[in-house]
Design goal:
The chain is an alpha/beta fold and 284 residues long. The protein contains nine helices and eleven strands. Strands 1, 2, 3, 4, 7, 8, 9, 10 and 11 form a nine-stranded mixed β-sheet that branches. A two-stranded antiparallel sheet has the order 5-6. Helix 2 links the parallel strand 1 and strand 2. The relative contact order is 0.15. It binds S-adenosylmethionine. S-adenosylmethionine binds next to helix 2.
Length: 284
């Protein structure tokens, strides 16, 4: 049984955990969740590694995880800030306030109340997602209580970082789980294209050069003897992802993830194939 986090994060890997987590590299002592997002992955391997490090470029998001893990007053603060699911004006005021004077509790309240629970920022990194006519509810309360009980069992194990991945030194004896924003498509001549393979709010942080840097980062992890698993959309609506395709061409092992016992998922009427790629041998 996997534990869901209380962020309702769009792009969460929660539903795929049963296919991903058993494939991890447990030969390593340290686990690094480089793009932690809603945190569902690190939360479910706290008992499996000696040390856990999580990172995300959105600092307030990392601070929410830190607040929950260390059981601070972040939950009460967030509850006080959530607006009623009919209160559009209240939501807009909260959003303005966040953009003037941000805090982790405010971001969590916005995340729970916004459209599709999707964090969306403009080019100036101002939060700009619209009101989703939703709010904190009993279901979220239940998830929070389960999560807090779970974290209590594994104190002092998690290190929290908020940087762009390429500013983080690569460590040895470490297994990296890597779930980046949607990557760029491959052109017919094999070069990297100008468009990302699909849409997500956190895509605004991701540029073509990040895909190239991430590819080089993965090669470096491999070179120093650490290990990685990358997850992502290999193909969508007939288009192919440049970076994942390049890793496959390099000979890394990969598996297709299944959705409802189907090898492909559908976004609208468009077929999507999501995979994991690993640089370590399959366990027997
Ligand atoms: C696909 S989501 C991760 C979802 C996560 N695995 C989960 O289960 O919730 C990708 C994350 O990468 C973060 N991100 C975007 N650019 C980044 C960068 N340059 N360095 C680190 N994190 C970044 C985004 O904020 C987003 O939370």
């Amino acid at each position: 049984m996997y534990i869901n986090t209380a962020l309702n994060y769009t792009g969460s890997k929660f539903k795929l955990l049963e296919q991903i987590v058993p494939e991890f590299d447990y030969q390593k002592n340290n686990f690094f969740d480089l793009f932690t997002g809603g945190g569902s992955v690190f939360t479910n391997v706290l008992d499996k590694f000696e040390n856990i490090t999580i990172n995300d470029i959105i600092t307030d998001l990392v601070e929410i995880h830190k607040g929950l893990y260390n059981n601070t007053n972040i939950v009460d603060d967030m509850k006080m800030l959530c607006v009623d699911k009919t209160d559009k004006d209240g939501y807009n005021k909260l959003r303005d306030l966040y953009n003037l004077n941000n805090s982790p509790a405010m971001l969590w309240a916005l995340l729970l109340c916004c459209t599709n629970n999707m964090l969306r920022f403009n080019n100036k990194f101002k939060f700009n997602q619209t009101f989703g006519q939703r709010s904190f509810n009993d279901n979220t309360e239940k998830k929070i209580n389960i999560l807090l009980e779970h974290y209590k069992k594994y104190p002092n194990k998690v290190e929290f970082i908020s940087k762009s991945f390429n500013d983080i030194l690569i460590r040895d004896n470490t297994f990296y789980y890597i779930d980046p924003p949607y990557s760029f498509i491959k052109n017919e001549d094999g070069t990297i294209g100008k468009k990302q393979i699909s849409e997500a709010g956190y895509n605004c942080y991701w540029k073509q050069e990040d895909d190239i840097k991430l590819y080089e980062y993965l090669k470096m992890i491999d070179k120093i003897g650490s290990s990685f698993m990358v997850s992502g959309v290999l193909s969508h609506d007939g288009k192919t992802c440049w970076m994942l395709d390049k890793l496959i061409q390099d000979g890394y092992r990969y598996k297709v993830l299944e959705y409802d016992y189907n090898k492909v998922s559908r976004k609208g009427d468009k077929e999507t194939t999501e995979i994991i790629i690993m640089n370590y041998v399959e366990k027997h």
